[in-house]
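Case 300 in the screening queue. Each case pairs one protein sequence with one candidate compound; here the compound is cytidine-5'-monophosphate. For every case the pipeline is the same: read the inputs, emit a complex structure as C-alpha cells, and attach any notable structural observations.

Predict complex for case 300.
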Amino acid sequence: MSSVTVRVPAKVNVQLSVGPLREDGYHDLVNVFHAVSIFDEVVAKESESITVSVTGKWSDQVPVDDSNLAIRAALALAKHAGRTYGADLIIHKDIPVAGGMAGGSADAAGALVACNELWGLGLPFDDLMEIAGDLGSDVPFSLLGGTAVGTGRGEQLSELPTGGTFHWVFALANGGLSTASVYAECDRLREAEAADVPWPQPNDSLLEALGTGDAYALGSHLSNDLQVAALNLRPELAPTLDAGRQHGALGAIVSGSGPTCAFLAIDALHARDLALSLTTTGAAHTAVPAYGPVHGATLV
Ligand code: C5P
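Case 300 output:
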C-alpha cells in the first residue's frame, strides 16, 4: 500500500467539569465528548522518513516540525512497533487550529490509524488507544468518536449511546487559545476566589438528554467549567454567545478551551438559519453548521 487516507472529526464538550489541579499539572475531569461533522483528513504516503505538510483553510497556523502532534503520533507508533518507519503525512485541515475542537488531537489520531495501515502493523484498536492517551488527553476520543464520557485527564472513555442526531453551529474566532493557558486562568480565578473545587460529577439530566435525543433538554444542560476563564481571556466571545441565544439557540457555550463558540440548534434548517444570522449580524465572521455524533478516525 503506497497511500492511506483517514478522516477524523472535531469535537465539542457538552459537559466539561474540571476538578482540582493535580500534582502532575493536569485536572481530573468529567468530560462529555461529542464528535461533530467538521473533519480533518490525514493522508500517509510511503517515505524514507516521517514528514508533515498541511493544506486547507488553516494550514499557515500549523507547525510542521517535530512539535506537530501527527509527527509525534507516527513516531510513537513506530517506537511501539520497535522499528524505524517513514511516512509523508499530508493533513488537510478543516478543524479550527487551537479552537477548542481537538484539531491537533484529530490529526494525531488520524496519523495513528493511517500509519498502522500504511506500515501493515495491524495493531488492535486498544493498542492505538493506549498510545493515543500518552500523546494527549483528547487523542483517544478523536480515535473513538461518537459520544463518550471521559474521566481522568479525559483519556479514560466510556461510550454513550445517543438517541438521535444533534445539530450545531460553530462560530469561529480570530486566532486560537492555548489549552494550557485557559486551564491556568481557571486555576487562577479559583485561587483568587478561594473557591472549594468539588470532585467532578456527570450531570445525569444531560446524559439522559443525550440518550433520548432531546435537543431542548441537552441545550439547557450544556456546561463548561473553562468558559469563565476563556471569556476572561477573550471577552469579545460573550456577545457572540448572547447573539446565538437571541437567535434561538437551545444552548450556547464555549467549545472546550475555546475560542470557538458552540450553539445547539433545533434541527438542520435552524442550524443553517442560525449560522446565517450570526454572520449577517456580524456576531461571528464565520459560522459553520455541523451535526453529531459522527464516527471517530475512519479509513476512507
Ligand atoms: O493533554 P494535553 O496535552 O492535550 O493537555 C494540554 C494542557 O491542558 C496540559 O498541559 C494541561 O495544562 C491542560 N490540561 C489539564 N487537565 C486535563 C487536560 C489538559 O490541566 N485534564
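Case 300 observations:
- The chain is about 35% helix and 30% strand.
- The chain has a mean pLDDT of 97.
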